[in-house]
Amino acid sequence: MEAIVRQESGWILSQQLASGAVITAYPGQPKIVPYFGHLALYGLAAWGFSLSRVRAYLDWYLAHLERPDRYGVTGTVYDYYLDERGAEVPAYTYDSSDSYAATFLTLVRLYYGNSGDRAWLKNHRQELELVAGAMLATLQKDNLTLARSDWRVKYLMDNCEVYRGLKDYAWLLAEAGNTGEAERYEALAGKVREAMEAKMRVNGGYCPAIYRAGLRRRPNWKKWYPDALAQLFPIITGVLTPREEAARRLYANFLRNYPHWYRQTQPENFITTLVAYAATLMEDRWRVRQYVEGLEENIIARGHPWPYHAAEAGILLLALKTYLAGDAKE
Fold first, then answer.
1. What is the pTM for the complete model shown?
2. Is 115 exposed, middle or buried (0-12, 13-18, 19+ CB in 10 A)?
3. In this structure, which topology does domain 2-329 adopt according to CATH?
4. Are strands 201-202 and 80-82 parallel, antiparallel or unpaired?
């Protein structure tokens, strides 16, 4: 597993452009999707690898903040595509304003936690505040965020990531000595968590989305995305701690519906590494080992075929860091 960590770290870096941006190698045309860039670099930052390259990405993101964007939101970053000359061209849209911003702040925390780069944190204080504002731009009175100002759906995945982003930004503010602001963001995180528990929790799981007029959709466990995968996000983002009964029940329900997820490592039936990360947090070590062995044989050894991309590798590094820490304890 340590060899895979080294290999995948190098492969993630091979997906980074000279500008600092990280590409997602979609079939046909690579794109710069900041959300996936954040997840790709989670692994490097968590391991403390190539932190100067992580910082180069952070600088790229902050240099591309919109003030405001086409939706009237300040502090967001569009997706970009590469033209025939390799120039980065804005797509003038993004999948979500809440998750892009939240996951960026989580990446900053991982970077700072391993670099101690106080100067960078101080120099970019105002820009980070803009990103935090973008994360909360769609926060509603019920303390849940909409994915985008023109897409009025409150997703479980997004709000889990917002909870984590708020917690991480509060930590960064405390590190910078801004105790009052840190407490404010910590309190906001608590409100988002309470809102998810009150409005999205259903028997044995969470509704994956709340639509206009408060319409709640119960999870269809047989529908992989977003329903079933979303159920793991409270565990992945720390909304639930792995030892909580609610987390154990959630993961048991997942296994009941996907008992052989660890076998799905072929490109045609690939299950995201996010599942392996959740399984690692839940100490499901046997299934994680089986999954990683299949991933090495069917994906890594075959040159990383789609749908595996840099974000998958980044989350794999997170999973393996947690797994190997468990080895050390044993």
1. 0.97
2. middle
3. Glycosyltransferase (1.50.10)
4. unpaired
